[in-house]
């Protein structure tokens, strides 16, 4: 049996751009993609902390070190620059593999620079980069 688990996430990233006319997807700084083990064209879920929108799209790489988090195409209607989002990737794991799997959780600051990378979350844990 396979189970669907969170593979990684970028926690509380700040949307830097939203462009309705770009080809659809989410552009993510390649440094953040590497840290979160997210691949080019990988399907991700985006959760907007500002308005509650949750949607899926795919990833295209953005310039390294730029901090870019840009929602493109129709997804641009679901965010505004400055919104806080969580970008989640998922994977299918065999049940025995899943029991020992630790995701990559990438915490960023207000400029989308990596502050910390963890391998687990706990109930009630609060992250405030300030």
TrEMBL record:
Substrate binds at residues 57, 73-75. GO terms for biological process: alanine biosynthetic process; pantothenate biosynthetic process. Its cofactor is pyruvate. It is found in: Cytoplasm. Keywords: Autocatalytic cleavage, Cytoplasm, Decarboxylase, Lyase, Pantothenate biosynthesis, Pyruvate, Schiff base, Zymogen. GO terms for cellular component: cytosol. Its EC number is 4.1.1.11. The keyword Cytoplasm applies. SUPFAM superfamilies: ADC-like. Its main location: cytoplasm. Binds 1 pyruvoyl group covalently per subunit. Is synthesized initially as an inactive proenzyme, which is activated by self-cleavage at a specific serine bond to produce a beta-subunit with a hydroxyl group at its C-terminus and an alpha-subunit with a pyruvoyl group at its N-terminus. The modification Pyruvic acid (Ser) is found at residue 25. The active site is at residues 25, 58. GO terms for molecular function: aspartate 1-decarboxylase activity. InterPro entries: Asp_de-COase-like_dom_sf, Asp_decarbox. Gene3D superfamilies: 2.40.40.20. It is an enzyme of class 4 (lyase). Pathway: Cofactor biosynthesis; (R)-pantothenate biosynthesis; beta-alanine from L-aspartate: step 1/1. It catalyses: L-aspartate + H(+) = beta-alanine + CO2. Catalyzes the pyruvoyl-dependent decarboxylation of aspartate to produce beta-alanine. Belongs to the PanD family. Heterooctamer of four alpha and four beta subunits. This is Aspartate 1-decarboxylase. It comes from Acetivibrio clariflavus (strain DSM 19732 / NBRC 101661 / EBR45). The lineage of its organism: Bacteria, Bacillati, Bacillota, Clostridia, Eubacteriales.
């Amino acid at each position: 049996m396979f189970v669907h688990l969170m593979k990684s996430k970028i926690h509380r990233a700040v949307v830097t751009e939203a462009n309705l006319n770009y080809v659809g997807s989410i552009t993510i700084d390649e440094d953040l993609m590497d840290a979160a083990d997210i691949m080019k064209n990988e399907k991700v879920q985006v959760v907007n902390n500002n308005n509650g929108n949750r949607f899926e799209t795919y990833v295209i790489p953005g310039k390294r070190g730029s901090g870019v988090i840009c929602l493109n195409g129709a997804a641009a209607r679901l965010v505004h620059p400055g919104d806080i989002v969580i970008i989640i990737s998922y994977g299918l794991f065999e049940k025995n593999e899943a029991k020992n799997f630790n995701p990559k959780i990438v915490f960023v600051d207000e400029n989308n620079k990596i502050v910390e990378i963890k391998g687990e979350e706990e109930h009630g844990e609060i992250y405030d980069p300030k």
